[in-house]
């Protein structure tokens, strides 16, 4: 029996030795995201004003994300769908995919679960949004763990290097 993969979604989980609030703030604030994930990560309120770096985003905000290793014209600018201030952060991402981050306790550990869904099933989308995003999220979740547990930031910040797994 051959099991066919469901190309429309994937889920990644990682345990992190940090408080729920520290993990949540790492996802839902500009300052948090820029520590482990992005080069620039401002959140705009519905009125267009930019939230202060340490202020949590809210449902209805939009984000403008830029990565190390990519020029400024490579940008994600999409809405936050849900942000409950504690353990759930949900947003639109590349290709109109939906990413949900949940923080929960399991077996005495703090677990972060990232799900990406609504992935189109054409071949290009399978490669970009299923394979590419799952690979990217795997690296960034490992970097989140490293940074929050007191280890090094594993991102490549040298703009002269390209096509590396840690950009």
List the helices and strands and how they pair.
Blueprint: E1 10-15, H1 20-28, H2 30-36, E2 43-44, E3 62-65, E4 76-83, E5 88-93, E6 97-106, E7 109-117, H3 123-148
What does this structure look like?
By secondary structure, the chain is an alpha+beta fold. It has a single domain (10-148), classed as START domain (Alpha-D-Glucose-1,6-Bisphosphate, Chain A, domain 4, 2-Layer Sandwich). 25% of the residues lie in helices and 27% in strands. The protein has three helices and seven strands. The protein has a seven-stranded antiparallel sheet, with helices on one face. β5 and β6 (97-106) form a beta hairpin. The longest helix is centred in the last third of the chain and has 26 residues, at 123-148. It is globular, with a radius of gyration of 16 Å. It starts with 9 loop residues before the first strand and ends in a 19-residue tail after the last helix. The model has no long low-confidence stretch (mean pLDDT 96).
């Amino acid at each position: 029996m051959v099991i066919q993969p469901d190309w429309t979604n994937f889920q990644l989980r990682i345990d992190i030795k940090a408080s729920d609030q520290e993990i949540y703030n790492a996802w839902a604030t500009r300052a948090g995201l820029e520590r482990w994930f992005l080069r620039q990560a401002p959140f705009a309120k519905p009125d267009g004003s930019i939230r202060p770096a340490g202020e949590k985003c809210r449902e209805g905000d939009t984000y403008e994300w830029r990565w190390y290793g990519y020029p400024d014209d490579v940008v994600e600018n999409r809405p936050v769908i849900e942000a409950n201030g504690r353990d759930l952060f949900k947003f639109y991402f590349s290709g109109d995919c939906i990413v949900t981050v949940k923080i929960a306790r399991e077996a005495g550990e703090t677990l972060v679960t990232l799900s990406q869904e609504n992935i189109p099933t054409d071949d290009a989308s399978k490669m970009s949004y299923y394979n590419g995003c799952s690979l990217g999220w795997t690296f960034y979740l490992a970097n989140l763990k490293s940074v929050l547990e007191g280890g090094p930031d594993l991102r490549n910040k040298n703009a002269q290097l390209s096509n590396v797994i840690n950009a």
